[in-house]
Design brief:
Layout lengths: L8 E2 L2 E2 L8 H16 L1 H15 L5 E3 L1 H7 L2 E7 L9 H14 L4 E6 L3 H13 L3 E6 H6 L1 H9 L3 E5 L6 H15 L3 E3 L10 H9 L1 H14 L5 E5 L4 H7 L9 E9 L10 H4 L2 E4 L2 E4 L25 H9 L2 E7 H15 L5 H16 L4 E7 L7 H7 L1
Parallel strand pairs: 4-14, 5-6, 5-8, 6-7, 9-10, 9-14, 10-13
Antiparallel strand pairs: 1-2, 3-4, 11-12
Bound molecules: pyridoxal-5'-phosphate.
Length: 392
């Protein structure tokens, strides 16, 4: 079976749960995206942006002191933190904004929580000369002032959202409302492998460069495939980017790390797969944190980028089929992972990435014989310094 199928389903997940007025624009987007994927000219331009502008290919680097510390694991880091803007998100926004231009759209909109996707979208829009409006909850605007300043400096308009909890999910609602109203000239840039079809497919394809490069680099270094892949999962785009090119390599074990916040049995976490409920958010069906009435719960994680109550439909599918395993790491453990990587390797990871780093400690205790791992090093930690100092 091909995933997703022609209606955008990954098994029971995914789909297009949107207002009827968006069905035609989503179909138009799908046709444009599939055309772009077949177009040598599009691929050439996209590749040029990834290499000349963003800084690809990124290094696959053997973390020797971390590996010595873990004893049973030989860890290679796929260094997405070295990209322009400091994280993997730029891979996707360059792809989507380029596609918007090809479709003749004259305006970009996005929603953002912590502001990382907003910054990556504003960056791509500035580069390609398109106006950009970013919806952001009023609460988040106060919490993430630096990213708001970055977006504004690059010419984007940050629109405060004052409805509901004034956070990411309310910003998403407003962005969708804007898109419904202005769909003829506006392109909606979604930041993870979430949202209605074709977004999970499209974002996967734009991020898959991570895994394609890593697979080649690893084969060159070790002469075989890795035993494990490990990545943190918010919506799941850095993880899917690494995982997807290895999905058919059945011997490669795939592990996604959700954010357990204060613990998955507390009210404060961001681990929908651990919570085991299924629902519809942002136009697609997936694991979703919700109340007994089906209202979407507010997620909590120390990592703003993982602070999302849903997860991509393809991860949901991998979870039920067993192709990938999903585990979780708490706020406290993530800080330990962050210190470990900083002290042993001289690389400060984003607090999101630190969740995946800490999981290696747990994995190292489980493996029976010496094993190899590719860790998706999704971003750098500079953005988190203020918060980490406060926490420690
Ligand atoms: C946004 C972000 C994430 C989480 O998003 P995914 O779509 O799950 O990849 C992880 N790491 C960093 C550095 C981020 O900025």
């Amino acid at each position: 079976m091909k995933n997703p199928d022609k209606h955008g389903h990954f098994g029971a997940f995914g789909g297009k749960y949107v207002p009827e007025t968006l069905m035609v624009p989503l179909e138009e987007l799908e046709v444009a995206f599939k055309g772009a994927m077949k177009s040598a000219a599009f691929k050439k331009e996209f590749t040029a942006l990834l290499t000349d502008y963003a800084g690809r290919p990124t290094n696959l680097y053997l973390a020797k002191r971390l590996s010595a510390h873990l004893k049973t694991l030989k860890v290679y880091c796929k260094r997405e933190d070295l990209l322009h803007t400091g994280a993997h998100k730029i891979n996707n926004t360059l792809g989507q904004v380029l596609l918007a231009k090809k479709m003749g759209k004259t305006r970009i909109i996005a929603e953002t929580g912590a502001g990382q996707h907003g910054v990556a979208t504003a960056t791509a829009a500035a580069l390609m000369g398109l106006p950009c409006d970013v919806y952001m909850g009023e609460e988040d605007i106060h919490r993430q002032a630096l990213n708001v300043d970055r977006m504004r400096l690059m010419g984007a308009k940050v629109i405060p959202v004052t409805s509901g909890s004034k956070t990411l999910k309310d910003a998403m609602n407003e962005a969708i409302r804007d898109w419904v109203t202005n769909v003829s000239n506006t392109f909606y840039c979604i930041g993870s492998v979430a949202g209605p079809h074709p977004y999970p497919l499209m974002v996967r394809e734009f991020q898959a460069i991570i895994g394609k490069e890593a697979r080649k680099q690893f084969l060159k270094a070790e002469g075989k495939l890795p035993n494990y892949l490990v990545a943190c999962v918010g919506g799941g785009s850095n993880a899917m980017g690494l995982f997807y090119p290895f999905v058919k390599d059945k011997k490669v074990k795939i592990i996604g790390v959700e954010a357990a916040g204060h613990g998955v049995h507390s009210q404060f976490h961001a681990a929908p797969m651990a919570a085991k409920q299924i629902g519809v958010l942002h136009g697609s069906k997936s694991y979703l944190m919700q109340t007994r009435d089906g209202q979407v719960k507010i997620a909590h994680s120390i990592a703003a980028g993982l602070d999302y109550p849903g997860v991509g439909p393809e991860h949901s599918y991998f979870n039920v089929t067993g192709r990938a395993q999903y585990v979780s790491v708490t706020d406290k453990e993530a800080i330990k992972g962050l210190k470990l990587m900083s002290e042993l390797e001289g690389v400060i990871p984003a607090v999101e990435t630190a969740h995946a780093v800490y999981y290696l400690e747990k994995l190292a205790k489980k493996v029976k014989k010496k094993s190899t791992v590719i860790l998706c090093f999704s971003g750098r930690g500079d953005k988190d310094m203020g918060q980490i100092k406060e926490y420690i």
